[in-house]
## 1
Amino acid sequence: MSVLLHNGKIWRSGLKEGKDDRFYDWILINDAGLIEDCGGKGHRPPEAARTIDLGKKWVLPGFHDSHIHILWHGNFLADHVNLKCPNSMAEFKEKLKMFLEDPSNASSDEISWFVAYGFEQGPLGRYPTNTDLDEVSADRPMVVYHTCLHVGVLNTLALRMVGFDENSRPKDDKIGVYPSGHEMEGRPNGLFKESALAGVMSKIPSLRERNKKSILSALNDCVRLGITSVHCLDANCWEAYVELANENKLPIQCFFSTFHDDFVGTNRPKVAGETHGPLLKCSCVKIFTDGALGSDTAALSMPYKKTDPGQEDNFGILFYSQEELTKMVKEVDKCGFQLEMHVIGDKAAEFAVTALEKCRVTPDKRPILVHCQILTHDLVRRMSKLGVIAAVQPQNVPLDARWVRDKLPEKLQECMYPYKTLLNNGVVCAGSSDSPAYYPNSLVGIHDVILQPDAPQGSTSPGCFQPKEKVTFQQAIDMYTSEAAKTDFAENFLGKLEIGYYANFVVLETPKENDGEFVDISEKPESLLDTKVAETWARGKKIFDATE
Ligand SMILES: [Zn+2]
C-alpha cells in the first residue's frame, strides 16, 4: 500500500547550505518501503492509498549509528544488573546481593553465570577482589564489569571455572594478583584487564539467550531514538544475531563488525559479506590498537602531563608492535573483510595508518578508524589518501574535553577532536555513540558537533571547546545519516530522503516559537537538546510512535 506523507519539513541532504529548497513538502512511499517520489511545495503530490499530514513537523533521514555496542547498551539498560556507582564497598556488596535475589537473575542450568556492570573503583576506595565477591556469593560464578568494560572482577568459583586456583601464580600484568606481604601474595585477586578479560569471558558457557534479550532491548531503544540502522560490535555474539535474524526479530538493519578475537575463533561469519535475511550483514573486522584516555592508556606520541614531577614518562599502551599490527591488517584484508581499528591516541593512529599503507589497502576498501580523538595534520592527510572513514563520537566534546585537556601535552591539545579538519581534507566523518560510552541519542551528537560546548548540559556558562572544529548543521546531519551510511557501503539506499532510498526517517517534535511555529533547528541548533523523536519509520513502516 502506498503512503503519502505531506505538509512536512522533510530535510534534503547534500544541498548547499542556506538554499531555500532545503526541504521537500511530501514523500511518497511504495509497497517495497522505498521512496517512490518526493517534491517541494510547488509540486502537487500524487494520489496514494494512505495520506498522512505531518503538520509541518521536521523530518530527517533515519540515523545510522556508525559504531555502537548493542549488547552492552542492552546490558546497561537492564536495571537489575547495572550497579550505577555505589558509594562504598559495603553498598556495592549490598547492591550485588539484591541483584542476585532478583528473580530475573535466577540461575538456571543454561545460564548459571551472574554478570553485573558499571562499578567504578573511585567511590569504592579500591578495586573489588574475588574475596569481596565471594562474600556476596561463593556458589555461583560471578563477574562484575567496570564501567569502562575493559576491566572485570571474578569471584573464586568463576576463577576456578576459567582455570585459576590457589596454585596459580599468573605473570601477566593484565591479570591482577595479591601484593607482596599479603597472605595470598602472588595469587590471582580476580581482576582481569583488556585481552586477559576477553580471554576469560570467551570461556563462559553459552550466554546466547540472555545476549539475544539484551540485543533486542538495545535495538528497540535505538528505534525510540530515531536510529534506523547500526554498525554494531559485540564480542562473541554473531550467532546470537544470526538467530535473531532468522527469527525475524531484528527491528532495524544491523551491519555487524566482528572483533578480531572472534575473527580468529569460531563465533564469526564464514565469509566477508555474509548476510542473513535483509537486515543482517557482516563485512567488517575490528582490531584494538590502544587503550583509552580515561585510564591514561591511549597511545600518544609524547608523554601525558605528569601529576607529580617524580613520575616516569607515560606514553600510553600500544597493544601490538607495528609488525604485529601490519600482519593482522594484511590477514583481515586478504580475507576480504573491511578493516576497523580502534585508535584513540595519535600514536595509535600513526600505527594504524602505517599498517594500512604497508599493506596497500586501497580506498575502495574503506578502512575505518574509530574514535580518532587526537590526530596531527600529517595523519589526517594520510587518512584522506587512504580513503579512511573516521567513525567519531562528538559527544566526547562536552563530557570529556575539559579533563582530557588536563592530561594532554599542549602540543597535542591542538589536535583534539578534529572534525572540521577531517572534513576539509576530504575524510568521511561518520557520527556514532560508541554506546555504552555515550547514550545513543544522535540529536545530542548533532548538537555537540555543531556547537562543541566544552562542558555538559546544565553546567554554568559553558564555552566552545575548539571553535575551529565546529561543523555546519548540514554537515552534522550528514555525519549521522548519509556519511555514516558510507561506513557500511549503504549510501545508495540509506541516509537520504530521495527517490530509490529506503523510507527510513524520523519525525521530530521540535520546540515551538512564540508564534506557535516549530523552531528552525538549523538556525537554532541549541534547541536540538529539547527536541524529541515523535515517530521512527523504517522501510516505509512506522516502527515507533511516541504517542502510543
Ligand atoms: Zn567501541
Note: Residues 289-471 form a domain with the TIM Barrel fold (CATH 3.20.20.140).
## 2
Amino acid sequence: MKKAIEINNLTKTYKGKKGAQVQALKGLALEIMPGEEFGFLGPNGAGKSTTIKTLMGLIRPTAGDALILEERISSNSARRHVGYLPENPAFYDYLTAEEYLTFVARAFDVPSNLLRERVCESLRIMELWDARKRPMRGYSKGMVQRVGLAQTLIHDPDVYILDEPMSGLDPIGRALVKEIILDLKKRGKSVFFSTHITDDVEKVCDRVGVIVRGKLEALDSVENIVRKGIEGYIVQTRLGLGRHEALSGFEIRGTNETFAEYFVPAAAFNQFMSLAGHNSVEVTLVETKRKDLEAFFLEIVEKGEAR
Ligand SMILES: Nc1ncnc2c1ncn2[C@@H]1O[C@H](COP(=O)(O)OP(=O)(O)OP(=O)(O)O)[C@@H](O)[C@H]1O
Ligand SMILES: [Mg+2]
C-alpha cells in the first residue's frame, strides 16, 4: 500500500521585501501511513499551513519534497484522491451550498448516477440541509467552514488534508468533525489535520506531531504521550488500621478522620503497595496522576522556542 503522505527534508524560506527572510520550515520529515489519523499540532506561525500548502502543491518548497500517495500533487488526477480544506475557505458566495457542492462533484468527475446522492449526503452530514438553497454570502463563519468540510467529502477521497478543520465551529460542530474523522478512520481513510488545540487530537488521532518554529519537536502516539505523562499515583488508605508509620517516607497530600492520601511517584508504586500490604494498611483508592496532552504540548513549545 502506498504511504499516504511523505515529507522529506521540507524546507521553506519566504523571501520578503528588502531581502527579509522568514524560515518557515527547517528540514521537516514525516510519514503518514494509509489509514492513519494524524494531528499536526503547533502554535500560531509554527509552519502548519506552509506544510499543508506545500503538500497541496500551492507553494513551492525551497528544498525537500512533500508527497501525497507517493506523488507530487501537481496534476488534477492526483488531486482526485485528496480532500483538501484550506485555512480560510472562501467560495463563490453567490452560489448556494447545493450549487457549489454540485460544481465540486462535477469537477472531481463524480459519476452522474452518484452525484445527487453525494451532494445530499455531504449537506446532511455537515448539517447544512436547511440552508442548502441559500446563497453562501448569507452564511455565518461556521457555516462556511462546514461547506469547506462538505466539499472534502464529496468525491470520497482516500487522503484528507485539513487545515484547522475545527476552526470557527461551535462545540457541536467540533464534536461533529471529530465524529467524521473517526468515521473516516473506520473506512480506512488517512487524515492529516492541523490544529493548535490539544483537545481536538486526543480522541481521534493515532499519532501527533508537534511543530515549533518550522521544526518537528515531537512525534509519538497519543497513547505513548499519555503513558509517559504519568507522574505518579494518589493512594488513599483507611486510617486506624495497620501501621501507617511504615509509610512515613511518602508524601501525605491530605488527611481527614477516616482516610489519608499519599502521593506516590510512579517508580515507587510497587514499593508502596508492598509496604502497605505487609503492614496491614488498607488501600481504598488509587488514582493516576498524569500530565495531560495540553501540558505536554506547552512543554514542547516552550523547549522549541527556547532553542
Ligand atoms: N506568504 C508569506 N510570506 C512571508 N512569510 C510568510 C508567508 N506565509 C507564511 N509566512 C510566515 O511563515 C511562518 C509560518 O506560517 P504558517 O502560516 O505556516 O503558520 P501556521 O502554523 O499555519 O500558523 P497559524 O496557527 O497562525 O495558522 C510565519 O512566521 C509566517 O509569518
Ligand atoms: Mg495556519
Note: Residues 39 and 105 are 27 Å apart (CA to CA).
